[in-house]
Amino acid sequence: MSFFGQSVLPAARKMKDFEKLLKSDYEYIICLDAHISQLKFMLQMGHASKKKVLVHLDLINGLKADEYAVEFLAQDFKPAGIISTRSNCIIKAKKKNMIAIQRLFLLDSIALETSYKIVERAQPDFLEVLPGIMPEIIREVKNASGTPVIAGGLIRTKENVRMALDAGAEAVTTSNPELWI
């Protein structure tokens, strides 16, 4: 199992990391913590390097994470997809034929139960489960939702990566360059 052939989805927090990923073998990369004024240029660089860039909508400075932002990104910036905690954005991204990854913070049982309701309504392409170091929960969410799971957050070691993948995650997201294996 993998996310379009990748077991790791590298996430760039800084421009130098993004530029490093443009030269990598990865087809899919994630853009985190960008400013709206940089984003168009970053996506143009990604397209020129034959990369499919996923934009973490909630972390783009200067852009409100709502359906209008998704519409704007789809029309003007053309990312391969978005990651968001906001189900209305996930629904809009799917309508715009972008990969839609619903980010879920699973802090406790109530958050888990609420997440199942969100997933049922939004029907995302993938779920990003945070923290991603909970193999039992990765299995449960994948089985209960029927949606492919990506593990993210607190992935610090190669062993964390292996455990998440062994638990059924399609891939792990990480901003740690040492884990971009």
Automatic annotation (TrEMBL):
Gene3D superfamilies from the UniProt entry: Aldolase class I (3.20.20.70)
InterPro entries documented for this protein: Aldolase_TIM (IPR013785), GlpP (IPR006699)
Keyword terms, alphabetized: Glycerol metabolism, RNA-binding, Transcription, Transcription regulation
Keyword Transcription regulation annotated: yes
Keyword Aminoacyl-tRNA synthetase (UniProt): no
Functional description taken from the UniProt entry: Regulates expression of the glpD operon. In the presence of glycerol 3-phosphate (G3P) causes antitermination of transcription of glpD at the inverted repeat of the leader region to enhance its transcription. Binds and stabilizes glpD leader mRNA.
Protein name: Glycerol uptake operon antiterminator regulatory protein
